[in-house]
Specification:
single chain, 232 residues, mainly alpha, elongated, disordered N terminus
Amino acid sequence: MNHKFALFAMCAILCGSLSACADSSDSNHVATGSAPSSSSTSGQQPSADSAGQSGTDGSPQAAVIPKGGGKIAAEKALYEIYSRTDIGDEEKVAQMMRQIAGINWTTYNRISGHQSLETIEYLYNHADMIAVGDYPDIIRGENGTDGALTESYDAILAELYTREPSKFIEAVAGLETPSQVESVVSHLAYGLSYQDTAKVKGKLEQLKQTGSLSEDERKVADQLLDRLDHPY
């Protein structure tokens, strides 16, 4: 009996030692295998240098790289600029123009707490601060408008066209697709319908005759002349 007990005790001690070694090995494996390596980016905030880069063509993926890195949508960027009180109107309008192309106003309305109309009316009231070089951007910024938003945006387009008709037509002619051109011309005609359309058409006809319009720009002018006859 003593011999058997001694043999059992030795087996127990040996098994315990093997178990302890296995636990130690597993523990080491967890400690070294589960933690992300220093080169891993999983779960980490992207740096300011990488946040605005795309994988292949190098073009920015986000409108703004906020302080500390990361990405925010163009609509949020536009609202943050509009909300600023530490800059003057001229600088604010200039910054807003850098974000406005491709803005979806339905999304903006949700992000801003239903301030789309106030924002567009702000731009209308400061349309004289919108630079000619910003025309290509603002004509690309009417996505998702309806009702009063559309009327206010169309009023901005009409104001800008009236100031610089040839530059506005040049910007429209530079749009990517015929459907985009048709859309902007339609909105512009609606905005111009609140003016004396006979005078608008007369000046446009004169621009066609005396101005140095390209072939594409003349097509835009013709579309606008036609649309002014039925702007609604």
